[in-house]
Design brief:
Organism: Ulvibacter litoralis
CATH architecture: 2-Layer Sandwich
Strand order of the largest sheet: 1-3-2-6-7-5-8-4
Radius of gyration: 17 Å
Number of helices: 6
CATH class: Alpha Beta
Shape: globular
Largest sheet: 8 strands, antiparallel, barrel
Distance between the termini: 20 Å
Order of helices and strands: EHEEHHEEHEEHHE
Oligomer: single chain
Protein name: Spheroidene monooxygenase
Helix content: 25-40%
CATH topology: Alpha-Beta Plaits
């Protein structure tokens, strides 16, 4: 069965910069369907600040034919062994909105046990260059909403130059995530996400865009000295 994985790893600055321009993940990796190698960013931080793009901290989103292929990669590939020393979560596909080339959405969909089960959300898009200022205007308030939301245990953004942007968030429950999406959260300015989605529908920011929802299967390692971001795993 197809499985997705999301990895966070800290690299030496020189290695990180080099890998920005040359992905260390071979497209011929056995069992790999697609991968996106990105640099982590802090959600909601000022655009021109050292905390915005975190050089040295990499985020890698991958799809595999099965979990055995992922295990073999982490054990046998030189970069896979580096990823194995970081943090990652293994994900089972639930739902998709939109389309993004490269990933192959499984026909078989998993289900959560209940709306109170933890859930992982990934968005990924290819930006229209001239839409970037408008995207930042509408997107940063949403980033702050997700970053500060009491329902998230880990949230971040990532970027791959020239125009790939992505977000990743772990939610304590699916209910808290869907409430956020529809503007029903008990937080300040709860409709920031729904307002941005209406603006995207009016005039799209992206060449291609998708939101993916996953059931977390297993979590490994530490990120910034912390672990156990997924409740009850």
């Amino acid at each position: 069965m197809n499985i997705f994985s999301y990895h966070l790893v800290e690299l030496p600055i020189f290695d990180s910069i080099k890998r920005i321009f040359s992905s260390p993940i071979s497209k011929n990796t056995k069992g790999l369907i697609h991968s996106e190698y990105m640099t982590a960013m802090t959600l909601g931080s000022p655009i021109f600040s050292p905390s915005r793009v975190l050089i040295g901290k990499s985020a890698i989103f991958m799809q595999w034919e099965n979990e055995i292929a992922l295990e073999n990669y982490l054990e046998q590939d030189s970069f896979g062994r580096i990823l194995a020393k970081g943090w990652h979560v293994r994900l089972s596909f639930i739902r998709e909105w939109g389309k993004f080339s490269g990933f192959k959405i499984p026909a078989q969909k998993d289900k959560l046990e209940s709306p109170n089960s933890p859930v992982v959300a990934v968005t990924i898009a290819r930006m229209k260059p001239f839409a970037v200022p408008r995207f930042i205007h509408w997107g940063r308030p949403v980033e702050k909403l997700v970053r500060d939301h009491p329902g998230t245990t880990l949230s971040l953004a990532s970027v791959k130059f020239p125009n790939t942007v992505s977000t990743f968030s772990i939610w304590k429950t699916e209910k808290e995530m869907t409430n956020m999406v529809h503007g029903h959260s008990a937080v300040e300015k709860p409709k920031r996400h729904s307002a941005a989605m209406k603006e995207r529908e009016r005039k799209d920011f992206h060449f291609e865009f998708t939101t993916l929802r996953f059931k977390p299967v297993a979590e490994f390692g530490e990120w910034k000295g912390q672990s156990n971001f997924i409740p009850n795993t």
